[in-house]
Automatic annotation (TrEMBL):
<protein>
    <submittedName>
        <fullName>Uncharacterized protein</fullName>
    </submittedName>
</protein>
Length: 41
């Protein structure tokens, strides 16, 4: 089994997935922070 170098397309796809995950995590953290602040108020 030889190691295949990822193609440019695969790299772009992976980068896009990482961006989406990062965005979702960021949104989730913001939502959680907002809920915590709302409960304290």
């Amino acid at each position: 089994m030889e190691y295949q170098k990822p193609t440019m397309e695969e790299l772009v796809k992976n980068q896009a997935i990482l961006d989406v995950v990062r965005t979702l995590l960021g949104t989730g953290m913001t939502a959680v922070r907002g809920l915590l602040l709302a409960e304290e108020a």
